[in-house]
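Reading is simple: each integer encodes one residue's backbone shape. An example follows:

___
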Amino acid sequence: MLEEIERSIVIRRSQCLLKVAGLALSMTPSESLARPMVTDLALDLLERHDHHLDRIARTLLLAIDGRRSRAQLEGLARMLGLRADALDQLCEAGLIKLDASY
């Protein structure tokens, strides 16, 4: 019972954060709370200081540590001036993977 209440609070809190951040509410709670992780390919690029990554995309990649939620990282991407689909682009490029666990 207590776990259900805590989960409900987390979901409501994430919906409130999404409203405040101006994110689309079509995102499910599990998607908004997903914890993106960098892949080995991204780590190689970051270690080599590969010039295929611009400074802003590199900053976003460095912020992806498995602790920040997708919603938090999308907010950071917006503050950095990146497009709304920046995380999706990184995922398609094989630089991050999404983990839907809490």
Summary: The chain has a mean pLDDT of 75. The chain has six helices and two strands. Strands lie at 37-38, 96-97.
